[in-house]
Fold this protein.
Amino acid sequence: MLVRQLDNENVVKDILSAHLDFIKLMNSFPTVLICDTTYKTNKYCLLLMEIVGITSINMTFAIAFAYSSSERMNNFEFALSKVKRLLVKYDMLP
């Protein structure tokens, strides 16, 4: 799954990528999600957010990766809202 957010000039601001197997794991273990960011260390000076989950035996697994053009609240809200929409059961939010 690949989701993108465009600005007023149709320029990509944010990209979120999640593999189908990672989405299935997240729906099996939705209790804890961890977000970590790396600031402007890649070739394009973009923010990289990684979202991971934890299984019942304390193993971590990747859920999604997001590249953002800036460090504003709406960029984080975009990524987290898209991950939230991947949950099948909304009564078990992390």
